Amino acid sequence: MVRLKSREQIEAIQKGGRIIAEIFENARDWVKPAISTLELDRWIADCIRKKGGRSAFKGYRGYPAETCISTNEEVVHGIPSSRRLEEGDIVGIDIGVKIQGYYADGAFTFPVGKISSKKKRLLEVTRAALYEGIGQIKPGNRIGDISSAIQRHVEKHGYSVVKTLFGHGTGEFLHEEPIIPNFGKERQGEKLREGMVLAIEPMVNQGGSEVRVLPNKWTVVTKDGSLSAHFEHTIAILDGKATILTSLLPEEREYLGG
Ligand code: MF3
Ligand code: CO
Questions:
Q1: Residue list, ligand 1 pocket, CB within 6 Å
Q2: Considering its fold, how many domains does the chain have in total?
Q3: Would residue 142 count as lying in a domain?
Q4: Which residues participate in the annotated binding site?
Q5: Tell me, what CATH number does 110's domain have?
Q6: How many A from CA of 168 to the centre of ligand 2?
Q7: pLDDT for the residue numbered 258
Q8: pTM above 0.85, yes or no
């Protein structure tokens, strides 16, 4: 069952979305060589709390940290640790916020210092794939239109999409129906309609699409050890169009100097 949201519910989800967006705006100053992923996790947890929210991930199915931080060949669900970032790494940060009873979910992959042009391209293609997917969100289109747009963009550039992890509905629970694969066929699946709130999250590997889970039971890595990137937005269908809830209004962006 897809849980359609009212305007008021969507506004509550957007409060969490803005917190996530603001953290990503400021994260550029924190994602630097020598910081540990646990220090990053602590900083983000503080930001969430100061703004009146709480982490949606901590305790979710026993997840042990406030955020997921995944470096290089880690795809998603990296557990923050004493590992220090190094110049040339890429680092995916995934943040879920619960505020006023509602959830928002977002992720961004950052370069650490100067990175190679190959890595830069992986980040650009993955981010663009997210926006290709978002571009398909309108009433009357189907989930398969989002999925196929993402897959097409990724494969056109010689990368692969992960096939065992998905985007999802969100709002009253972190994970709701429908599931949103990053691969599929146009015109297939559930019809998109007013009031849907969707978390779209392409996970893109430089090499093969296969992944495995580390013995810590959480961290997903590429099987072939190739790099992986991940971007995610929470989007609502409101007044017949897609609104990205995990982004700042232009005036908020200016205020932060972004
Ligand atoms: N954003 C991810 C997702 O939507 C992370 C959640 S996993 C968690 O699946 F356990 F850390 F919460
Ligand atoms: Co998600």
A1: 57, 60-61, 63, 68, 77, 94, 96, 105, 199
A2: 1
A3: yes
A4: 77, 94, 105, 168, 175, 201, 232
A5: 3.90.230.10
A6: 6
A7: 43
A8: yes
CA distance 115 to 165: 27
- Give a yes or no: residue 1 inside a domain: no
**Residue 208 is part of which domain span?**
7-248
Position 129 in a domain: yes
Test site for ligand 1: of 41, 66, 94, most ligand atoms within 8 A of the Cβ? 94
Per-residue pLDDT reduced to its tens digit, 40-74: 999 999 999 999 999 999 999 999 999 999 999 99
Determine the distance separating the centroid of ligand 1 and the alpha carbon of 118, expressed in angstroms: 27
How many percent of the chain have pLDDT more than 70? 98
- Which ligand 1 atom sits closest to the C-alpha of 56? 12
Q: Is 65 part of any domain?
A: yes
DSSP SS3 for 124: helix
Residue 182's CB is within 10 A of a number of other CB atoms, namely 27
Q: For 120-179, how does the pLDDT look when each residue is reduced to its tens digit (9 = 90+)?
A: 999 999 999 999 999 999 999 999 999 999 999 999 999 999 999 999 999 999 999 999
Strand 90-99, strand 102-111: pairing: antiparallel
